[in-house]
Amino acid sequence: MTSTPPARRRDLRWRGALDLLALVRRAPGITRAEGVRRARLSSGAATELAARLRELSLLHEVPAPVAGRGRPTTVLGAHPDGPVVAAVDLRHEDWRLALAGVDGRLELVAAARHRRRDPATVLAGVAEAIAAARRRLGARLRVVSVAVPGTVQHQELMQASALRWGRVDLRALLAGGGVPLLVGNDATLAGVAEARAGAVAQARAVLYLTIEVGIGGVLVVDGRPMTGATGAGGEFGHLPFADPRLRCPCGARGCWDLAVDGRAMARHLGDASPADARTYARAVLDRAGRERPARAAVQACAAALGAGTAALVNALDPDLVTLGGLAVAVLAAQAGAFQTAYRRGLMAFRRAAPPRVEPASRGEDGALHGAAEVGLDALLTEEGLGAWGDHLAARGGPRRR
Q1: How far apart are CA 46 and CA 34, in angstroms?
Q2: Segment 216-226, tens digit of pLDDT
Q3: Cβ atoms 88, 101 nearer than 8 A
Q4: Residues whose CB is less than 8 angstroms from the CB of residue 271 and which lie 6 or more positions away in sequence, other chains included
Q5: Does residue 171 register a pLDDT over 70?
Q6: The domain spanning residue 48 has which CATH number?
Q7: Which end of the chain is more exposed for a tag (fewer CB within 10 A), N or C?
């Protein structure tokens, strides 16, 4: 009998484990019976694999609720002593920190509003929350993944125009290093989470768009974001879809950002540009049902959103478009204006069956879920599981549960 080469042995060691862990991520609360069926494992192989993953503190099993006469089964979830990803969502007004085990379930552990908006003050607060999580979790914390509202290149924040930040080195979030740091644009990460969730996951190419301060998004193909050569792709808000006389904080003119958010609503209403465009937009949306000027301002933003969405559909050819953030409320308030501009902007051959447009399912937590997703992508690899196994071995070996 010929022996399996070392590299191949490692592949066989983790292949089934990664397949089963992927199922646990895609379907939180999945039973072992359903996992066995989907992974096409024999009962014996599933039992052996589940035992191995328990030994490695990766999976935990609890009895499933009894349903009918079938054989009792268990529900698969993250082990309480298992590896953890820290996900950070750095937003315009505040930040949040959540922890996720291998099943992707989020536990919010810290949050705060910005006392001041300068990078040093904001990052110091986030860094202290991460340090507290590291002190509590020790080596269980394997990856820190951060969503930021700006342009990211080579894992560095290059510009966050809504925060008035220029280039910021985010390595300051991890004093002393020791844990991998991943950085992504918040809209890109929210799009990843959206494209992998529920029925949307069946679409091959999903275009995600969200309005907060400006508009961002990403095209996700087969669950992977298309972010270009350096990771800075997806800055849809800086396409020249608006009045070229308008100067954007990014330095360009006529950016789509300026036609769809609270700043656009203020301009249509004759108000000064608001200090907090997101809060201003919510107030206008609340008034739109009873005040004609507010309704007209929202209508103009909905039309600009629809026209730009059509342009991106023409260029990128998605199966589906999902809208997040304030775009959901804009669509709900002025669906007719959006749809008219959307269909008018589509190439003729697309109009008979245009990609459907629907609200995102993750709501306010999209970027946080997306940060956790890409963190788990980095953790749940052959190398990531091998490093976790080495850590347990150094502590005296895995414990059986």
Answers
A1: 11
A2: 999 999 888 89
A3: no
A4: none
A5: yes
A6: 1.10.10.10
A7: N
Same domain assignment for residues 174 and 38: no
- Alpha-carbon distance of 185 to 366, in angstroms, equals 12
Strands 205-212 and 320-325: parallel
Residue 319's identity, in one-letter code, is: D
Distances (CA, A) of 50 to 19, 64, 66, 74, 171: 12, 15, 20, 11, 37
Using CA atoms, how far apart are residues 149 and 163, in angstroms rounded to an integer? 8
* Cα–Cα distance for residue pair 390/196, rounded to 1 Å: 30
Please state whether the predicted TM-score (pTM) of the whole model is above 0.85. no
Residue 239 makes CB contacts below 8 A (sequence gap 6+) with: 255, 256, 308, 311
Give long-range contacts, CB 8 A cutoff, 24+ apart: 381-388.
381/18, 382/10, 382/11, 382/14, 382/18, 384/83, 384/142, 385/14, 385/17, 385/18, 385/56, 385/58, 386/10, 386/14, 387/142, 388/56, 388/58, 388/83, 388/142
d(C-alpha 79, C-alpha 61), whole Å = 8
Domain end (from 51, 78, 105)? 78
What do you get for the CA distance between the two ends of the chain, in Å? Answer: 35
